[in-house]
Amino acid sequence: MADQIVGTERPRVATPHRLVVPREEPAGESPAVRGETVFDLRDVNVFYGAFKAVRDVSFEVAEHEITALIGPSGCGKSTLLRSLNRMNDLIPGARVEGTVAYHGENIYDAEIDPVEVRRRIGMVFQKPNPFPKSIFDNVAFGPRLNGVRGSTLDDVVEQALRNAALWDEVKAKLKQSGLSLSGGQQQRLCIARAIAVEPEVVLMDEPCSALDPIATARIEDLMQQIKDKYTIVIVTHNMQQAARISDRTAFFSTEVNPESDTRTGLLVEFDETSQIFSNPNDERTENYVTGRFG
């Protein structure tokens, strides 16, 4: 891979992606992706110490698509999401087994730089978390760390706010605190902050759960607008949201250990969203999306 995620000086050059050729697959297996593969997960298991939180997850994420992870609480959706940019590295005792390949490169290989992984694969969290800084400084934080200064920084901040559909609302008050914005505006500010460093992928962990319906609709519209620039993976408890915005959906469930009462998440089904919600292959998926359990 010509542009490996290693070292400290890495020019932004095109990565030689591995093309995936559409193929016929037996029912119940992952569908062929429509574009180039960004993530290829194979037999992924996530542990916290001796506890296996997620087991045997395999699916692919295609570029410029929205992939939704759905399932009941405790099924490992957020744990898996954080594994896609090595955020779990920050949790003592956490480890990932199997392969999380990003453009064919396993991001858990020893020589891979996790900081560079997180620059290329951004994250938006459940609750808006602006820094206690100005609107401008919130968005400029990452680019400044990357050495961007002066008028170029101004341009980067403006473009990120435009891409987050927030520029027109804040352009006259860039020096005001980001904490002064409404909840929905704060979440769009966090999206602007995430995309200001020009990632390829944006991970979103229930980004609308703390927002009202109007703000939620704005975030959903925004995701549709920016997916031509970014690949998006979103965790959501809102099945209607997954059905509205995503191209592919992964449904997770849990296995309960009767002795310890611990729950391990597992992938039940991954397919095009229309298939998951209209004609799923697994009865557990149908029971969940129709509200019969979960």
TrEMBL record:
Name of the protein in question: Phosphate ABC transporter ATP-binding protein
A GO biological process of this protein is: phosphate ion transmembrane transport
GO CC aspect terms: membrane
Q: Which SUPFAM superfamilies match?
A: P-loop containing nucleoside triphosphate hydrolases
The record's listing under Pfam families reads: ABC_tran
Entry keyword set: ATP-binding, Nucleotide-binding, Translocase, Transport
Q: Which NCBIfam families match?
A: 3a0107s01c2
Domain ABC transporter, chain residue ranges per copy: 39-279
Record-linked InterPro entries: AAA+_ATPase, ABC_transporter-like_ATP-bd, ABC_transporter-like_CS, P-loop_NTPase, PstB-like
Organism for this UniProt entry: Natronosporangium hydrolyticum
Q: GO MF annotations for this entry?
A: ATP binding; ATP hydrolysis activity; phosphate transmembrane transporter activity
